[in-house]
Amino acid sequence: MSSVLKKIGEPSYTLLEYVVLITLMIYVLTPLLWLLETSVNTDPTPYLSIPKGITIDHFIAVLTNRPITGGYAAHPVYMTRWIMNSLIISGTTVIIVVMLAALSGYSLSRLRFKGKNLLMTLILLSGFMPRMAMILPLFKLCRTLGFVDNLIGIAIVVSSGTLPTQIWILKGFFDQLPRDLEEQAWICGCDRISAVFRVILPNVGPGLAVVAFMSFLSGWGAFTVPLILIRREYLFPISLGIASVFIHNPGEIGLVVDYGPTCALAVLYAVPSIALYILLRERLMEIRLARLEVR
Amino acid sequence: MVEITLENLTKYFDSVKALDNLNLKIRDKELMVLLGPSGCGKTTTLRIIAGLEKATSGHVYFGNKLMDRVPVRERNVSMVFQSYALFPHMKVFDNIAFPLIIAKYPKDEVKKRVKEIAELLRIDNLLDRKPHQLSGGQQQRVALGRALIRKPTVLLLDEPLANLDAKLRVEMRSEIKRLQRSFESTAIYVTHDQVEAMSIADRIAVLNNGQLQQVGTPDELYHHPDNIFVAGFIGTPSMNLLDCSFDEEKSILDFGPFTLDVPENIKPLLKGSSEVIVGIRARDLQVSKEKMQNSIPLEIYTVEPLGEETIIILISENVRIRVVTRLEFKADIGENVWVSFDLNRIHIFDKKTGRAIL
Questions:
Q1: Which residues of B touch A (CB under 8 A)?
Q2: How far is CA B309 from CA A107, A133, B138, B304, B333, in A?
Q3: Disulfide-capable partner of A256 in A71, A160, A260, B325 (CB 3.0 to 4.6 Å)?
């Protein structure tokens, strides 16, 4: 009795923590669970329901390019193509961004040159600019450069959007690295470039991991840029592909959609981001340690 | 294995003058210590010699070769940083081998030489560890190993012992001296610790405010300081430096609360100067409870027993004097004692220029 009174008198913080945590989890995870539920439901509907049976048919449908049947649906599907396209775009984005951000971040951190502060401000500002604000000139420019219906072109445009932020992130990592290390490398006989590759880059591993992760996400999640630049359906990334399933069906939007495969595709769309996070988690966690470990 | 000449070295950081027209010759195979308080320009000098910093004006020569435009990697200098700057992502073996790997030595040769140097430094059991798994002393040895493996012509050491505890520091400084001898490198060692400097150096260059104060062997600096700065900086406890005026007529040095007769042999040197500073080492003073010849009465301010000996600080009005006595001398704070000056061992400096007169 007294313990109950005590609990009322002194509310347990543990309980409060759980309440807050569970609320947050419901908030974040509901759409995901909904998606997962529909993707394995034998009788998928657009509503959250208890599945009558569980099947992986929809995933097989996606991975074997079985046409989406939903009523009158008769538009071509290139599900595996879309997955490939997304991988090409994000892979290329990672390569471009990591390379350029590492070189620029290093230069901004270590070299002294005229107009450096102005340049850094401009880079920061361009990172803040919403992509849609520049969409018209961007489109014209891309058409001139042949980036329309060109996956590498998409990657280049997406990279240019995420690059400023990534340069700043990596510059921070370079700034933290003691100059002694680099100078010691020079004394040991390295020139500037080999010192960067042999000593500097291996020691900003966590930073490179963060940048790789974030640029992958920006390529993987890209929607507006491909929306404007890609016309042919077999060149769609997954993001456009999922949208197209809804938009292209005749009749009322959404009503004739084959929900199972669509949701299965959406689940597959989410997998690489999560997998990459798990893969890089250790490195991402190191970031804090890297700050502490001075020597 | 080379003589180093610094010629009119001046270095500005923006508008701050870090080095002021430094001229210094470091002899072949010598261990030269650059000594001075922080901010005196000693590390800047080292970095200019390494090529990590460009002098605003002046030149560096290795032998007869002008080094001003030679890039760091081609100078064949080795440097041990205060932070050791071990490469965190490499094992101890790779850290030590790094200079050889860059110079593209054959693998067998690298292995053999790393093993040799690791045995010499007694770190051959640590070769598979990463730097963060080592103690401070072990990290220091690895840094030394990496610096020595190339048999550098010039070995630069920037406060290499500053991050070690007191006991290890004493141990390592004799080891560094021994290694430098056996490798026959010309070595330049930067420190702010004068005891360290005295114990390790062939010669010491004392710097202050970017200016060279004096170059000489530890003995020369201790017994014949050129100016007040060197006199006050070298020696523990530091030299007593007492303001006084010279009265030519009475032939006395007037300290305020007391005076001293000037011996005949010193008189001609003092001619013409009135304001001087008298320097005398704490060990060249004798303290006694009875009056002695040439002694003055002072009151005991503090007593610091150090085991072997005791440091007593004496006071009379605004004059403070530090004296080292043997432990047998027992006295209490506030007691009055007599102190006698060994006038053959005093130093006299011109108060205006700071230069030694005697």
A1: 50, 52, 71-73, 77-79, 81, 83-89, 98-99, 102-103, 131-132, 139, 146, 150
A2: 58, 81, 34, 9, 17
A3: A71
